Every structure is written in C-alpha cells, then in structure tokens.
Amino acid sequence: MLAGAVRLPDFYDRPERYFDAASWQTRGWAWIDPKKEAEALQLLEEMGIVSKMEICAMRGTSYDQVLKNKERERKLEERYGYTPPPRRPRPADTPPQEDLGQ
After folding, report:
1. Proportion of the chain in helix, strand, coil states, percent, rounded to 5
2. Is the pLDDT higher at 81 or at 3?
3. CA-to-CA distance for 25 and 28, rounded, in angstroms?
4. CA distances from 96 to 8, 91, 93 (A)
5. Cα separation of 50 and 63, whole Å?
6. Residue 44 has pLDDT above 60, yes or no
7. Which end of the chain is more exposed for a tag (fewer CB within 10 A), N or C?
C-alpha cells in the first residue's frame, strides 16, 4: 500500500478488514531439551493456557497444516497397508517404579 504496488480502495476507511485477514508467522526454533519442551507445552495446552494453534505457531507451522499432513499420512499408510506401531504411554500414564532398596 505504501509503495503503491497494491491498490485497495477502502484501505484507509476499513484497515482492520485487511490487517485481520493476514497473519505473519515467524520461523520456529528447536529448543535445547525438546522432550522437556514438549512436556511443558502439553501441560500448558491441557491447562488451557495455550492452544494447539499457538503451539504450532511457536514451532513455525500452522495447526491447519499439521492436520492436513496427518490426513495425508493416514491415507498413505492406508494405501500401502502400513500399520504404525502402538503409541508408547506418556510418562504420567506409567505407574511409578518400585524402589528396590538401592
């Protein structure tokens, strides 16, 4: 708009129409301890403090793209007859180990 490359006749009358329609997303960065980060983000999401959309944005992707990728994976697995191994239980779901007196 400022350079004159784009012409939007009602931009100055209704700028929110255009600002709300666009989203800017930064590059995602890996953390030092990805396991701890994943556990922390999962906890925050379960507590309702952050959304899955926010978590995806932190990682440099969108939740919409994640769901599209999962659907594509599911269709490919189905097409080739691949059955993924069962998921391992989360640490919170695992009963505590007994102390063996060590």
Report:
1. 45, 0, 55
2. 81
3. 9
4. 62, 9, 9
5. 13
6. yes
7. C
Measuring CA to CA, which residue among 61, 58, 21 is closest to residue 42? 58
CA nearest 90: which of 33, 30, 38, 34? Answer: 38
Give the pair of three-digit tokens for residue 71. 């659907």
Give the other-Cβ count within 10 Å of 82's Cβ: 9
Q: Is 42 in contact with 49 (CB distance < 8 Å)?
A: no
Q: What is the pLDDT of residues 52-80, one digit of tens each?
A: 999 998 888 899 999 999 999 999 999 99
What DSSP letter does each residue of 60-81 carry, written as one string? TS-HHHHHHHHHHHHHHHHHHT
Tokens of 4: 């004159």
